[in-house]
Amino acid sequence: MKSKREANQEFLRRRQKRLCNNADALHWIKKQGLSDKTIAVFGLGLSELYLDSQNFPHENALLAPVINENGIFTNRTIYLNIPNITVNPSAKAMWAKGDCITYYAEKRNLQPFVIVCEDIFDLWITQQKLRESDSESNFLLISSTPDNSEKIPVEWKTSSFWQQFEIVYLGFHNSLLGERKALQLSRIAHCETKRLRPPIQSGSSWTEFWRQSGKIKEFRQLLGKASIVSETLSIGNDSNNNSLGRFGYKPVDIAAAFHQGHLYYPVETLVNSLDTVKDSSGNQTTQISSRTEVVVIRSDRTIHTVREEAAPRGTPSENRILRLTDGTLLASRPKASVYSTWSWQSIEAYLQNRGKPRSLKTILKDVKAFLRHEVWLPYDYDYDLLTLLVPTTFAQSVFQAVPMILVTGEPGSGKSAIGRAMCQICANAAAVGQISAAGVARLIHETKGFVMLDDLESIGKHSKANSAQFNDLVQALKLSYNKDTSWKVWTDVRQGMRAARLNFFGVKMINNTSGADPILTSRMLRIFTRKIPNQSLFPKVVVGSRNRFNPDSLRDELHTWTFENVELIDATYQRLFPQPSDRAAEIAAPLRVFAEIADDEELAKGLELALSIKNESVEKPADPIDLMMQAVRNIVRAGYREISTTHVTLEMKSIQSRQSINSREPYRFKAEKWESPAWVGRHLRTYGFVEINVQSSRFWLFGKSLRIYPVKNEFLKKIADENEGTQDHLKKKPLDFCSGCGSCDYRELNCPLMSSRKRAEN
Q1: Quick count: other Cβ atoms within 10 Å of Cβ 324?
Q2: Do residues 50 and 58 touch, judged by C-beta distance below 8 A?
Q3: Nearest CA to 364 among 613, 607, 566, 567?
Q4: According to the model, what pLDDT value does residue 256 have?
Q5: What percent of the chain has pLDDT over 90?
Q6: I need a labelling partner for 631 at 20 to 30 A (CA). Which of 211, 538, 570, 678 fits?
Q7: What is the pLDDT at residue 607?
């Protein structure tokens, strides 16, 4: 019930004076972040000495009179324990007598928004920060007086209490208890309730947030990002209690879940046990019996099994409730992927905290080296993109969206080889070839990992008799990059029109000779392949050779590293991409997260170069000048501040080469029109790409004279502004583009330096 009686003013003044005279108590309060003004506003004081019924003394508890909706101190009091100062506290933190009631930070004055605080300490310091920045706040802060039974004030149980506000912000602690309280109130309120959480990195409470130099600007940003409770809280988790009644039911597909801050990995195990049986003579004897059982590994080094909840007699099997032993509601009995890649030996080592994995930077160096040994790619930066794609497959459940890769190239150029190499080192990897669209759909759902669709065209031909299902598959693939759109109800005509809800989410690689559906292509990162160049010109290119890397060991190590660092992955993702600006940023986010964690400058630089090029328009430039402009942009993005006409010409050829692979069309422009260094140099000056008041210089490289121009500062600034948020590249020297024919991106573009360099090196 609400307390209407006002506090005894003499009583308050006496206790406030005791607090002012106790330097140690004041020091502790101010150490918590409260100012002198806040202490006075909330009438804080120290309790006087009294003896309880057992003759135990009690003294020096911090006391705060409860403030009612009129902003008046009442005769109800909240007591707080001040460590080493309070004598015989009645609770570890805070306590109060009587039923819990509402504690108001100030007078209810038609404020449109209310913030419900976990406790009065959160309320005091948040109110202090709000008043320091805005004396006429639209926010009313309330809390409940402490109650050990986790009850709530009676008035909070009626929707009319909450409907006097436009928005209710539930600012409970960032904990399971806080989530449960928020869900409980959201069900009662029948109005817009939003979950306001302290940032994980700042601790679980708002008091910790403000004490760690939290800013009012950041707090207002968090208010703006607060999400509606019903959209973000797991209703299924709330039904962990044993209360009678009806509750929401939202089970988890645990094989593809990032749930309550944990990753889960189902694995099939063999269980041997001793059973007592009767032999042929009727005598009891023991024997070893065996069975398989799927257990679930959680990313806190715990192992969980499935239990079936008790149900009323006659309940059909499909209506029975399944839970993990950690209480998680399950949508279905977990199944281990038939393509499971985490060995039991490695899982045991992880559970027992044996054998720490290496740093991500070191692991990815081996991944990149493995890919170089297995496949040849015409563009070096594609190795960086694929290298960062590998750890993404191990942690894909953490992300809202993941990349999909389209590999295109002429027949025999190594498209399938890339898929096979990735399948050797990615998580739960499966390659799909000559099967029906329905078979592909089921496999993607069951794999829960990396899927390589080897030749989408052949799958379409295999499903020709049922083109509708192939079209359904393509539509599902278009939406499968995002968690929210990845589920699809699939009707399998070959299984008697049997319908199943399938999850298509996950990293995929599709190879195709002729590209793919334009909408699907727009949601994918493309890798172009070519046939391996002439071995006489590139003697160092060796593909498919025996190498020192054990892909199974690499996968085990990546599984372990991911489970040990899931909090770091999630925190980095939330920090770098709290709200991705567009689809391109959304699908590239996981790659950039792992580039950030690996802290490998070369890897990050290659990724950004790959992304900048892959985000180019697929349309051809309208004329050679547009082509030249795009070439100069690419060169500057790669870190060059001085450019040669030969470098620009080669980059122009490279752009048209990528376009011709995708469109299967020849170059649009005749070579004699723009391959001339004089033509390029003249137009670089004419269109303001290079400094015209600085004389160009010449360098000799393998018998060839190259003219070098400094890029104009205005153009450099324009490129920097366009690429805001990407990593800066190290400045390169103008001749660095010619670093060796074997790894050169221009090795197949009739480079004028190639033959002379080969002669010089041989």
Answers
A1: 21
A2: yes
A3: 607
A4: 67
A5: 33
A6: 538
A7: 92
pLDDT of 222: 92
Q: What is the token pair recorded at 325?
A: 């032993």
pLDDT of residue 498: 62
Residues 651 and 634 sit within 8 Å (Cβ to Cβ): yes
Q: For residue 276, what are the CA distances in angstroms to 142, 283, 288?
A: 63, 10, 9
Q: What's the average model confidence in pLDDT over 381-386?
A: 94
Query: Region 739-748: what's the mean pLDDT?
Result: 78
Q: What amino acid is encoded at 724 in this protein?
A: E
**pTM of the complete model:** 0.55
The whole-number average pLDDT for the span 663-692 is 67
**DSSP code for 363:** H
C-alpha angle 296-298-301 in degrees, rounded to nearest 5: 115
Tokens of 308: 């079936």
Q: Which helix (H) or strand (E) is 508 found in, with range?
A: strand 508-512
Strands 451-454 and 430-432 turn out to be parallel
595 Cβ contact partners less than 8 Å away, ≥ 6 residues apart: 388, 603, 604, 607, 727
pLDDT of 300 above 60: yes
- What residues contact residue 376 under an 8 Å CB cut-off, 6+ apart? 414, 532, 541, 543
CB 206 within 8 A of CB 126: yes
Strand pairing report for 451-454 and 404-408 = unpaired
Residues 6+ apart with CB under 8 A from 396: 402, 427, 449, 505, 506, 507, 590
- Other Cβ atoms less than 10 A from the Cβ of 291: the count is 9
- The total number of residues written for the chain in this structure: 762
CATH for 360-572? 3.40.50.300
Q: How far apart are CA 88 and CA 51, in angstroms?
A: 10
| Residue 413 bridge partners (DSSP) | none
User: Does residue 2 surpass a pLDDT of 70?
Assistant: no
* Average pLDDT, integer, range 272-289: 81
Q: Which helix (H) or strand (E) holds 142?
A: strand 139-144
Residue 503, CA distances (Å) to 133, 234, 692 in order = 47, 19, 58
Bigger pLDDT: 740 or 461? 740
Cα–Cα nearest to 5, from 78, 105, 74:
74
Q: What is the dihedral of CA 79, 85, 90, 92, to 10 degrees?
A: 90
pLDDT band at 247, cuts 50/70/90? low
Q: Is 728 helix (H, G, I), strand (E, B) or coil?
A: coil
3-state class (DSSP) for residue 672: helix
- Give the mean model confidence (pLDDT) for residues 420-433: 91
Check pLDDT > 50 for residue 619. no
The continuous run of DSSP H or E covering 167 comes out as strand 167-171
| 285-290, Cβ contacts within 8 angstroms, sequence gap of 24 or more | none
Query: Cα–Cα distance between 36 and 221 in angstroms, integer?
Result: 28
Q: Is the pLDDT of residue 267 over 60?
A: yes
Q: Which residues contact 397 (CB under 8 A, 6 or more apart)?
A: 256, 257, 258, 263
Q: Is the pLDDT of residue 44 over 80?
A: yes
> Do the bridges between strand 167-171 and strand 193-195 make them parallel or antiparallel, or are there none, so unpaired?
parallel
Mean pLDDT, rounded, for 38-62: 91
Nearest alpha-carbon partner for 235 in 305, 307, 328: 328
Q: From CA 597, how far away is CA 111, in angstroms rounded? A: 44
Q: How far is CA 522 from the centre of its chain?
A: 21
Bridge partners of residue 489, in order along the sequence: 501
Residue 500: per-residue pLDDT: 74
Q: Would you identify the CATH topology of the domain 1-98?
A: DNA primase DNAg catalytic core, N-terminal domain (3.90.980)
